[in-house]
Amino acid sequence: MHHPFRHISTMANYLGIAQNSPLHQIKLPAQLEFNSTIATTLHEQIQVWCKRDDLLHPIISGNKWRKLQHALATFETQSEALATQASRPRRIVSFGGAYSNHLHALAYCCNKLNIALIAVIRGQYLANETLNPTLQDMTLWGARLHFVSKTDYRRRHDPEYLQQLKSKFDADLIIPEGGSQISSLHGLAQMMQEIQEQAQELELAQLNASIFDEFFLPVASGATMAGVVKAEHATNKSIAKTITGVAVLKGEGYLEGLVQQFLPQFRPPETSDWQIEHHYSFGGYAKTSPELDAFCASVKEINHHPDAEEKSIRIEPCYSGKLFYAVNNMLEQGRFSKGSKLLLLHTGGLQGKRPPTKP
Ligand SMILES: *Cc1c(COP(=O)(O)O)cnc(C)c1O
């Protein structure tokens, strides 16, 4: 059955996406230290707030929903615009690594929306190798896995290669790696609006001032960051004075370029209120260390709320772990003044960090 969705919210309801992701205060180890030693009054304490996009949906990873919603909804709109049912676009090709949160989220959505998905996956798997949990799920949801060499994968933005894939798989739509394209920025604008409304309800908003002093989020393809920066500029009620991306991979200069590419209408100095912090990539994408692992465990421990499970927090070393570690480290270094209000975006992504299932 084909499901035509006129509105993103109808699609969101259909997929079981939460109306709003919570915004609440969390604790970081160095913040507790700061508040008990340096701050002398309640007013001087540093507050750490978290936008919990990890709670949007149990399977669809937070920022991937924000980024994919427009492509999937537009896809439906396009199909409605076409004259005959038979000519509706029905097949998507997209790209990612073997643990990709994007492909995992997209495969789930496609399954629910009755869209065929061809997942182009970086790297060859041996025929007798057991699929990891991410790929197992995707297979279960009916995605077709198409493994390509790292050399071929590098062509993922090459129009000629994309055309080849499109005809080979008879696909109607290509969604870039990470779900990252200019249209993905719409979903982030909606998230920023949610934050504004929630801050209003929580009486965090102050007259003529930003709601938060600093906003932190992880950066890989840069689309999430671009969406946040763009929304901050579009609103007359500033959410944060500065926006800092925490690089989860080694890419000084490169990552700034990626963010900038999604903001063609922005020119420095308009864009000087955002920056990328490059000291917390832990040697590269998906790399971790015993220290980072231990930090993730400690954040979970000090944010455990047995009586309010949704306030408990889990982070993993690939994205949110690096983000939280970075902010905690900056706190240790005394980078924030007394009374600062910090906001961290939890982008989700816990599925990638699952132990392999036994064959
Ligand atoms: C994909 C992903 C990111 C990176 O977002 P970009 O828009 O690619 O910068 C961050 N966090 C999680 C959990 C992700 O899955």
Protein topology:
Layout: H1 8-15, E1 23-26, H2 29-37, E2 47-52, H3 62-81, E3 91-96, H4 101-113, E4 116-122, H5 133-140, E5 144-148, H6 150-153, H7 159-168, E6 173-175, H8 185-201, E7 212-219, H9 223-234, E8 240-247, H10 254-261, E9 274-277, H11 290-302, H12 320-332, E10 341-346
Parallel strand pairs: 2-10, 3-4, 3-6, 4-5, 7-8, 7-10, 8-9
Antiparallel strand pairs: 1-2
Helix pairs in contact: 2-12, 3-8, 4-5, 8-9, 11-12
The protein binds pyridoxal-5'-phosphate.
Pyridoxal-5'-phosphate (PLP) is lined by residues 61, 63-64, 101-102, 178, 180, 218-225, 319, 347-349.
Describe this protein with a few key phrases.
359 residues; six-stranded mixed β-sheet; four-stranded parallel β-sheet; 12 helices; 10 strands
Structure notes:
- By secondary structure, the protein is of the alpha/beta class.
- 38% of the residues lie in helices and 16% in strands.
- The chain has helices at 8-15, 29-37, 62-81, 101-113, 133-140, 150-153, 159-168, 185-201, 223-234, 254-261, 290-302, 320-332; strands at 23-26, 47-52, 91-96, 116-122, 144-148, 173-175, 212-219, 240-247, 274-277, 341-346.
- A six-stranded mixed beta sheet has the order 1-2-10-7-8-9.
- Helix 10 (254-261) links the parallel strand 8 (240-247) and strand 9.
- Helix 3 packs across helix 8 (185-201).
- The chain is globular, with a radius of gyration of 21 Å.
- The protein starts with 7 loop residues before the first helix and ends in a 13-residue tail after the last strand.
- The structure holds pyridoxal-5'-phosphate.
